[in-house]
Structures are given as C-alpha cells and as structure tokens.
Specification:
Blueprint lengths: L1 E4 L4 H10 L4 E4 L15 H16 L3 E10 L20 H15 L5 E11 L8 E11 L15 E2 L11 H7 L1 H14 L1
Parallel strand pairs: 1-2, 1-3
Antiparallel strand pairs: 3-4, 4-5, 5-6
Helix pairs in contact: 4-5
Length: 192
C-alpha cells in the first residue's frame, strides 16, 4: 500500500519508515506538498489536519502524526508547540538547541514528563472514519543533554533505566518510543 507521509521532519520520516517496512511511504515534500497549518490545541486535531491536507494534495491515502513533549510542572508545555517552543527562526538543529535550553531553564525539582504521539491515517481527504492511535512514553527531563542520537528533546528525555532517548540506538528507540507505540496500535486498527 502506498501512503503519503505528511511530514518533512527527517527524524520522524526515518522512524516511521523503519517501523512501517511493509508499506511504500512517500514523503509529502517529494510530491511538492508543503506543510499543513497546525492551528489546533490538540495533537489529534493537528494530526488530522495534516493527514487531510496531504491526502487532498496527493490524491492518495495519507499518514500523519502530531507529537510533542508534555512536562507536568509546566502544565503540559511545550505540548503541541514542542517544535517551536523557543521560536521559529533558524534551522531544525538550531531550534532544537533553543527549545532544549528554554526547557531546562524553566524547570526546578519536578521533572516528570511524557512524549505523546497521535498517528492518523486517512484513506481520502474526506474520510469519515480516520484511523487514530496514540502512544505515550513516560520519563523525566534530565538536567543536561546527553547522547547523539534522535532529535528534538531526545537528549533531555531521561528514561527510568537512566539513559536518555538520545543515548538509545535507533532500533532500541523504535521498540519503546511514543511513535512506535502509536504505529503498532495503528497497524492493529488497519488489520481489524
């Protein structure tokens, strides 16, 4: 099955590609499709908007996720605004560095956090029954970044066994991450 993936984030595309090996995945950017607006306050609404946008522009089934980091002590921030928590300027790597610095500067003792991923599959733009799956990955925020793998907040996302998400290999992360959990649930829905 061919699916347009509604993302231009190379980290997300790599993870989704590794987890959905039985599908022909086409990044929306290779079809000249730009990023969708994400004006909503929930992961599910933003993921659905991205999937419908990619399906409408491509005429194909589309897969989208909206994901982010939610920190308990910050009332769930950065949440749906995770990618641009410290502004939209600069490259992805520059934004990630600023986002991580801002996050660390805002925290004191309570460092509990979780990643959320909502994955949506629409068969067509007006699909009345989109498939929706959610994955949640619990951890806490480290006091300083560690590790060279992953992207976004991974160098700060400390797991119960003491490693950050950025210290995991791609294979390890793809077994336990929020995105992996959501994709497994989505595959179950597709088979049902």
């Amino acid at each position: 099955m061919k699916l347009v993936v509604a993302s231009s984030n190379p980290g997300k595309l790599g993870e989704i590609g590794a987890l959905l090996s039985g599908f022909e995945l086409i990044a929306q950017s290779t079809l000249g499709i730009g990023e969708a607006e994400e004006p909503h306050d929930t992961f599910v609404e933003n993921a659905l908007a991205k999937a419908r946008h990619a399906a409408r522009a491509s005429g194909m089934p589309a897969l989208a996720d909206d994901s982010g980091l939610c920190v308990d002590a910050l009332g769930g921030e950065p949440g749906v605004h995770s990618a641009y928590y410290a502004g939209r300027e600069g490259s992805r790597a520059e934004r990630d560095a600023r986002n991580n610095a801002k996050l660390v500067s805002r925290l004191s003792e309570d460092r509990k956090a979780h990643y959320v991923c909502v994955m949506v599959l629409v068969r067509r733009p007006d699909d009345p029954r989109p498939l929706i799956a959610e994955g949640v990955w619990h951890g806490e925020i480290a006091r300083a970044p560690r590790g060279a793998n992953g992207f976004g907040y991974d160098p700060l996302f400390l797991l119960p066994h003491g490693k950050t998400a950025a210290e995991l290999s791609a294979q390890e992360k793809n077994r336990v991450s929020h995105r992996a959990l959501a994709l497994r649930k989505l595959l179950e829905l597709m088979r049902a």
